[in-house]
Amino acid sequence: MILFFSILLFSDRNDTSADEDIAHQAQFLLKLSDVDAEIYWSARIAEVGDNEAYREFVDIETYMPDGSEHKRAHMFGGALYQQRGIDSFTVCDSSFHYGCFHEFIGRAVFEYGKDILEVASSKCVDALGTEGVLCQHGVGHSALAYYGYTQEDLKRALNTCRSLDEDGGNDPIRGCEGGAYMEFNMRTMLDEEDEVRPYGDQFLPCTNVSESYHLGCIFWQTQWWQEIFMRDSAHKYSSSIYTQMGENCREFTKDSSLLQACFAGIGNFGAGGVDYVIPSIVSLCDSAADNQEHSLFCRLRALKKTPAQKLDTQTPLEICTGLSGNIKKYCSAFTRNESDTHFTTDEGVRVDMSELLYFRSLR
Predict the structure, then answer these.
(1) Domains contained in the chain, number
(2) 205 upstream amide cis, omega within 30 of 0
(3) For 143-159, how does the pLDDT look when each residue is reduced to its tens digit (9 = 90+)?
(4) Which of 30, 64, 98, 225 has its CA 20 to 30 A from that of 73?
């Protein structure tokens, strides 16, 4: 029956526009159980191929209610794995918080064990080249979920990430390690039982891993802080939340590279909460930062995260509002894509920006 409706929905509909057709498909899919949704997408993959089916899935998601897109992407990932196996891993992308990746690699690990993680990592690079590092983010999620959710399990997952071949899998923020940190904190692969890690020591697990892991850990820790603080706040994305997060950054470390990672993380995860509105980004970053340099890290990372369609209706230069001196000059050049990978403060200190600002957005 599901296969019949799959064929019916995608047959020629001359009496409707393309948008109306997609909206109709979305309404049909909303009525399906998780099992039937996976059967539906299995039928589409078999009929039109994996890449075309995923394109349809992404199009339909624009008409779906917010809040469950990650779960629905899990259903597609499950269908993809059942239909095509491990070779289609790279059909998934970073959309919908990596939901397709998560389910796909999770099933592969369940079937083959942790050795499949290295295979998946290699396929990421073979298919996507330098962009494969984002695919490997899903490998990190799966490594953590495979071992478990204790701090010792996190160490095992991080060691697995570092043991991958020299293909970018140990990128501390974008790649496998970033996926492991995110999964440890956000627990996205526990399906209906998922629950963000309960609040406790605000610096764990970062204080429990070796210093070589601190850069990625503190970047992803800001995602967890934001989630936890919002649950305890009457006003989501309020300035007080970001003030506390900034204080956490400064309490955790005095190291300039780690502070850059921490404030860049605040911008990365805060931008979406204020709908990528540039004046709101400036406000939240200034609430977190105690100086212009820290605010700059936050602002520019948020700007890099902002989707192009959101920037089209705004003036990117507004991200530099309130800055001064060399920091403002660097910020202005950045908005025009004319900046170098470093800048010099008014005090003559050279600050390297390449590590955190020039990688592709994590969506």
Answers:
(1) 1
(2) yes
(3) 998 899 999 999 999 99
(4) 225
Tokens (6 digits) for 105: 């690699």
Listed residue (133, 111, 112) closest to 124, CA to CA:
133
Q: d(Cα 176, Cα 271) in Å, to the nearest integer?
A: 23
Domain region containing 255 = 237-363
Inside any domain, residue 318: yes
> What is the residue whose two structure tokens read 């509002």?
321
Q: H or E element: which one contains 333?
A: helix 325-335
User: d(Cα 209, Cα 80) in Å, to the nearest integer?
Assistant: 35
Q: Is residue 328 part of a domain?
A: yes
For 292-303, letters b (16+ CB in 10 Å) and e give bbbbbbbbbbbb
pLDDT digits 0-9 by tens, 312-324:
899 999 999 999 9
Residue 60: inside a domain: no
Task: Report the predicted TM-score, pTM, of the whole model to 2 decimal places.
Answer: 0.81
Whole-angstrom distance, CA of residue 110 vs CA of residue 105: 8
Give helix 256-270 / helix 292-305 axis angle, nearest 10°: 40
